[in-house]
Write a structure and sequence with these properties.
By secondary structure, the chain is of the alpha+beta class. It is built from 7 helices and 21 strands.
Length: 318
């Protein structure tokens, strides 16, 4: 019988990464490396998760999905996605400027890359006082103007800038240009199972002695020049301990605060928990797993779980 699954973290080194996972989330990082991403639940070949706990320990998420199919993610979900595990769950430590980038939608990504597009949502767990992000294009910037300025390596006065704070949720649909400009942000990311990024500008940084590749033409074809940032304040109202913070085609996310116990079950979809604060445990069928801030769990459908302790978590279902 399946059970709540925790996975070994896959750390991704990035030029814009840092060491905040260690100091803020208690993760044990490889030494002397700038870690930008922790892939928590992934069946993507660029960062495949392996099960940490229980009788499936050591098996990849893709192997488990291939064997259990709808029993792992939900029958309806499996019918829709087939052999492609639908989501990719991460934490990101953006400690320097995140390159200016954009992602394609499903139609373009499947046609050009045989992969899902990338719709994603960021939940801001920590943000420095000076945190400044790029989200969207300035009014009046057209595809032609973009290509002209980018062709001259001129990336000034093209992008909208926004400030963010802890507790904000940013929904980044395909076509939305995004980046970070100042300060640092630490966030949980829920996204489609995709690793396709079109890089527009990387601030002329070098990696291994070379500037990273840019994708100006590809970007121009997918940028939504009219789309503006959608930022949601997820703070709880007085007496509230559960709040739906986004509902879209690919997933629905609730923010939940637990001060004692919380019982949960979903018959249609797997549940993914991204632990934002605190520590506690999750129990199911007599087994107990300790959980804490910076961890992630996958609970298959039809499995009743009880979360106990003082916790805040994102709860994602499809």
């Amino acid at each position: 019988m399946l059970y709540p699954l925790r996975f070994n973290k896959v750390f991704i080194e990035k030029v814009w990464g840092g060491r905040e996972f260690e100091s803020k989330l208690g993760m044990k990082l490889p030494e002397n490396k700038k870690i930008g991403e922790s892939w928590e639940i992934s069946a993507h070949p660029n960062g495949m998760s392996t099960v940490e706990n229980g009788f499936l320990a050591g098996r990849t998420l893709q192997e488990v999905y291939d064997e259990y199919k709808g029993a792992l993610v939900g029958e309806k979900v499996y019918r829709e996605y087939g052999q492609t595990f639908p989501l990719l769950i991460k934490y990101l430590d953006v400690n320097d400027r995140l390159s200016i980038q954009v992602h394609p939608d499903d139609e373009v990504a499947l046609k050009k890359h045989n992969e899902l597009g990338k719709s994603e949502s960021w939940y801001i767990m920590e943000a420095s006082d000076d945190a400044l992000l790029i989200m969207g294009m300035k009014e009046g910037i057209t595809k032609e103007k973009f290509l002209e300025k980018a062709g001259n390596n001129d990336f000034t006065d093209m992008f909208e800038e926004i400030t963010v704070k802890k507790g904000d949720l940013i929904d980044i649909n395909p076509g939305m240009v995004h980046a970070s400009l100042k300060g640092s942000v630490l966030f949980a990311e829920i996204q489609e199972n995709s690793d396709i990024t079109y890089r527009i500008y990387d601030f002329d940084r070098e990696e291994n002695g070379k500037k990273r590749e840019l994708h100006i033409r590809d970007s121009a074809e997918v940028i939504d020049f009219k789309r503006k940032a959608e930022v949601t304040n997820t703070d709880f109202a007085k007496g509230e301990n559960r709040k739906n913070i986004i509902r879209k085609k690919y997933y629905s996310i609730d923010r939940i605060k637990i001060s004692d116990t919380f019982e949960d079950i979903n018959e249609d979809s797997m549940i993914i928990y991204s632990i934002l604060e605190g520590e506690g445990s999750i129990s199911s069928n007599g087994t107990i797993l300790n959980i804490k801030k910076g961890e992630s769990l996958l609970v298959p459908p039809y499995i009743k779980v009880i979360l106990s302790g003082n916790l805040e978590t994102l709860r994602t279902v499809i």
